[in-house]
Amino acid sequence: MKAVIVEKSTTTPVYHGAKVVDLPKPTVEDNQALLEVNAVSFNHRDLWIRKGQYPGIIFGSVYGADGVGRIINIKGSSKHRLGDRVVVMPSVGWVKDPRGPEDAYYILGGGQAQGIFSEYYVAQQEDLFKAPEHLTDAEAAALPLAGLTAYRAVFTKGQVSKGQNVLITGIGGGVALIALSFCVAAGANVYVTSSDEAKIIKAVRLGAKGGVNYKDEKWGANLQRLTGGDPIDVVIDGAGGDGVKTFTHILRLGGIIVSYGMTVKPKVDYSMAAVLKNIEIRGSTMGSRQEFQQMLNFVSAHRVKPVVSEMWQGLESAEHAFETMKNGAQFGKLVLSLKTSSKL
Questions:
Q1: What pLDDT is stored for residue 340 in this prediction?
Q2: Can you tell me the mean pLDDT for 43-70?
Q3: Residue 329 has pLDDT above 80, yes or no
Q4: Which residue ranges does the record assign to the Enoyl reductase (ER) domain (predicted)?
């Protein structure tokens, strides 16, 4: 089978390769299933691996945490059947504890847990879940990691509910967009930030009440004008950095900041002012297998659809997706189709 592997860089600055190679088709052991992969999608984690900015990189391992495929072989008793279209739990080692993983925990791709950027993929049966029927293959491939991360951030950690005011920063990325869809489906009033006015307009079309440009020094005041002076209940943040200073001013007493990433700066400035307002910062990364099933149920019940920004044909197109991600121009997920004969 063809697969995209991490090839060690010999250049400075580091930018590890994404090489398409031929690997043996995986064998199936008891309690496992073999998938013929229909589509895969990218996460910023894949780019960080290439830049050498992610821990535990194993050279020669397969990239990718997100994919959808059909079961073509099963061993042992199973809730699944041959031909089922399934998505893969994007990590291993976390079953149901809402506070954190019960065991050693690995995200698929580039390290200890083999990735899914390949024509075939073998997984434990309990890590396979039926893909929501209303999603195309491209949308289903775009869902797992971003959907799980967003679901835990929005509901487990953020406790978002109907009528609340929610701010989602850095709209345009996969997690931020699916978090927007989840909050809108839950009946919350959603506001967004971006440095790109076009992305704010697109977010409004997806259900956001409005948005502000975070490069404007007065973006917090601009946001409060949009809310009519009402405070924000929850911030879903993937940027980190100095934004917390502004969050402290615009959040209600007892407001919640959920941090699922720090793409701008790997720290936040949590001040005594935030303490006096009882503002909580809650770290959130990925989620459990139980939350993954809850996320899929929510997606099916509310007919939520991930936003797909661009799609290419074949694993050989991986470099095009990486270049698009490096440029930061995407609005939604980047997908590779592996099925030439099926409509995504």
A1: 64
A2: 95
A3: no
A4: 17-336
Tokens of 114: 């083999």
Is residue 106 within 8 Å of 145, Cβ to Cβ?
Answer: no
- Which distant-in-sequence residues (6+ apart) come within 8 Å of 303 by Cβ? 134
CATH number at residue 65: 3.90.180.10
| 69-113 pLDDT, tens digit each | 999 999 987 789 999 999 999 999 999 999 999 988 999 999 999
What's the pLDDT score for residue 241?
Answer: 77
Q: Give the chain's count of helices (H) and strands (E).
A: 10, 19
Please give the Cα distance from 287 to 148 (Å, whole number).
6
pTM: 0.94
**171 and 62 in one domain?**
no
Long-range contact set of residues 293-299: C-beta below 8 Å, sequence gap at least 24: 293/129, 294/151, 294/155, 295/147, 295/148, 295/150, 295/151, 296/87, 296/129, 296/130, 296/132, 296/147, 298/151, 298/182, 298/185, 299/132, 299/135, 299/143, 299/147
Distance (Å) of CA 42 to CA 23, 144, 305, 336: 21, 11, 16, 8
Q: Are strands 2-7 and 280-283 parallel, antiparallel or unpaired?
A: unpaired
User: Both 321 and 196 in a single domain?
Assistant: no
Same domain for 254 and 161:
yes
Token pair 């997606």 in the structure block, residue: 299
**Which residues lie below 8 Å from residue 214, measured CB to CB, with a gap of 6+?**
169, 193, 194, 195, 243
Tell me, yes or no, whether 114 and 231 share the same domain.
Answer: no
Percent of the chain scoring above 70 in pLDDT: 99
In a shared domain, residues 112 and 7: yes
Span 274-294, average pLDDT: 96
pLDDT of 225: 96
Residues 103-108: contacts with CB within 8 Å, 24+ apart?
106/56, 107/45, 107/65, 107/145, 107/286, 108/64, 108/65
The answer on 165 and 247 residing in a single domain is yes
The residue range of the domain holding 234 is: 148-283
- Domain presence at residue 343: no
pLDDT tens figures, 125-162 = 999 999 999 999 999 999 999 999 999 999 999 999 99
